[in-house]
């Protein structure tokens, strides 16, 4: 009997989404007698039954393309904006799952997607998730795809800022995404040679001073901050005599 698989991408876009879709599709099709249907724009596409058939021809040209061919959204099954209201569309999603006779639904996304997928699994649906986020903050996962590319880009930016810091005799503060996790700031900061790295996992005030009579050019610096209010507040720099 033919197997039916569904795939959707939800949450923020991230490097590697199309590669993941292609890898899943190619592997499933290699098993034979398997059909794959993609749902557009995350859980909203599953709710609205907007689909894309994923065959060999569709999958063959997406490996090097950025973004996701399926589109994405941050809509939640149990809190879905419909018109002027926010409604629980979980049952509609379950009905569409069964309408397509799916054997499993593959949800590619970060922490929010994992939570929404878990809610669907509690409704009796067969759910598989892939951890996708540049934040690398999905529990029980060694590394999430999208993280390494984001870290490389952030590192390159820090490398370039070193030259500007030296040229203008300034300290440069770099704020990096990461939600509540400091992996991205830590990795990019270490690789980019940051003098100070502040991450939300380590709290408390950091205060440093220097002698104003010394040439400021001896202090060109690049500092990485993880994007979190508590991390930003924990940075305090003072210029002046000790």
Can you lay out the helices and strands and say which pair or pack?
Blueprint: E1 3-9, H1 17-30, E2 34-39, H2 43-48, E3 51-53, H3 56-59, E4 80-82, E5 85-87, H4 90-99, E6 104-109, H5 111-122, E7 127-131, H6 147-168, E8 171-176, H7 183-192, E9 196-198, E10 206-208, E11 221-226, H8 229-233, E12 235-237
Parallel strand pairs: 1-2, 1-6, 6-7, 8-11, 9-11, 10-12
Antiparallel strand pairs: 2-3, 4-5
What would you say this structure looks like, in words?
- The protein has 242 residues and is an alpha/beta fold.
- It folds into two domains: 3-131, Rossmann fold; 147-237, Rossmann fold (3-Layer(aba) Sandwich).
- Helix content is 34%, strand content 22%.
- It contains eight helices and twelve strands.
- It has helices spanning 17-30, 43-48, 56-59, 90-99, 111-122, 147-168, 183-192, 229-233, and strands at residues 3-9, 34-39, 51-53, 80-82, 85-87, 104-109, 127-131, 171-176, 196-198, 206-208, 221-226, 235-237.
- The strands form four sheets. The protein has a five-stranded mixed beta sheet, sandwiched between helices. Strands 8-11-9 form a three-stranded parallel beta sheet.
- β1 (3-9), α1 and β2 form a beta-alpha-beta unit.
- The radius of gyration is 23 Å and the shape is elongated.
Helix content: 25-40%
Give the biggest sheet: 5 strands, mixed
Structural class: alpha/beta
Continuous helix count:
8
Shape category: elongated
Low-confidence stretches: 212-223, 225-242
> What would you report as the Rg, rounded to the nearest angstrom?
23 Å
Give the DSSP E fraction (strand runs of 2 or more residues): 15-25%
State the end-to-end CA separation: 78 Å
Quickly count the domains.
Answer: 2
How would you state the average pLDDT, rounded? 83
CATH architecture annotation of the largest domain? 3-Layer(aba) Sandwich
Strand order of the largest sheet: 3-2-1-6-7
